[in-house]
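Lab notebook: predicted structure, single chain.

Context: the supervisor wants predicted structures on file for every construct in the current expression panel, including those that have not yet been purified. This is the next one on the list. No modifications to the sequence; it matches the entry in the shared construct table.
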Amino acid sequence: MKTITHRQLAILRRILVPEVLNKLPETEQQEIRTLISEEGEGNHFRLFVDGAANLHLKAAGIGGHINKGSEEIYSFAEFVGHKTNNEAEYLALIRGIKMAQDLNITSLKIFADSELIVRQINGKYKVKHPNMIPLYHQVKKIVNHFSEWSIQHIPREKNSRADELSKEGLKKGIRT
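Prediction complete. Output recorded below exactly as produced.
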């Protein structure tokens, strides 16, 4: 197989939507997925997200970061107003996956320390709270644009950077 440039790979990732790729023979699909995959050794994209809420102060913040291998390529810390902790967790997830989409990332591994959110997105728990239902549907709609994605629960201590960013986002609202 001929070697292609990073620019050519970026173009392929933008134009090769799943609907087109799925029409190719299986062997060609696999060849193309391997070619354009970001899953190479230490070269995959990972999104870490977290939300923080202080119900007493009626304030919440979100934070997250996208890593490619061990390098952080994007981060965010934002105030989101009066939200519950679960709403903040969902909003952090939405913000992070939208940014991954804007960066033309096609394959994404997502990590969050909210077991509830992870289990809801993975279909293990039902989404019952009326405030959560539209957030859940928004996440499911956005992740369908990725050729591959997964979400996994991680312990809080392994999500310290996202936790730090969510608290920074919370402080932004408290200061104003």
